[in-house]
Amino acid sequence: MRPGVLFDFDGTLADTFDDIVETIQRLRTRIEAPALRGDEIRRHIGWGSPNLLWQCSPQLDHLRPDQLPPDGDPPGFSETEASEMREIFTQEYEELLSCPSSQTTLYEGVADICALFTNRGAELAIVSNKTERITRRLLASLGLADFFSLVLGGDSLAVKKPSPEPLLHAVRELSLAPDKTLMVGDSQLDLIAAERAGVASCGVTWGLIPEDDLVTCKPTYLARSMADLERAIDESTGLG
After folding, report:
1. Global pTM?
2. Cis peptide bond prior to 162, omega within 30° of 0
3. Mind listing the domains of the chain with CATH numbers?
4. Among 8, 40, 72, 203, which is least packed, fewest CB within 10 Å?
5. Residue 78 pLDDT
6. Would strands 14-15 and 105-106 be described as parallel, antiparallel, or unpaired?
């Protein structure tokens, strides 16, 4: 069994947030709804597109932020509405990613970290709540695709983070040693899923979630820099 590193994508490997916000604004323009403030959209990123689309739906515009349903609750769309919203979101997102105005970028040092631990013999996988199709597209366009032996999106399995199943699936598929596997992410969902799966976790502070909120989840490691992340991977996988 091999050591492995499971990475979240948004806010962990790449800054995708401006493009996601812009996609929601474009979607709302298409359905003739007024724009939202950026922070009203950002606070719901990370739970997967069905949750994001519901939380940013005009059906909830009459509610104050403290009245919105909790992130992760089942969306209130009908099947038809959900399908229509997904189609518009995917169209707008993929169109934006094809434009020079796309602002998605890798965090500095990510490619070096991936190359370093691939060369040292670790298996790398993506475990994201983003759709698999768009995750794979972004990995390819950002030059990371060849580093990852497995890519799981929020629609790859029947459940997504914070369920431990995507992590356990990756461990099984790649024949990873659980005691030498690390989940790296920028949100509570990643850390909770890691704890439930029985693998080590590393919270990174350069994503959306404040450091204090990550600390409450008691990650095995906390990375404030790529150097911190390298040390965490070294120690957890035994490859240092």
Report:
1. 0.91
2. yes
3. 2-15+105-237 (3.40.50.1000), 17-97 (1.10.150)
4. 72
5. 85
6. antiparallel
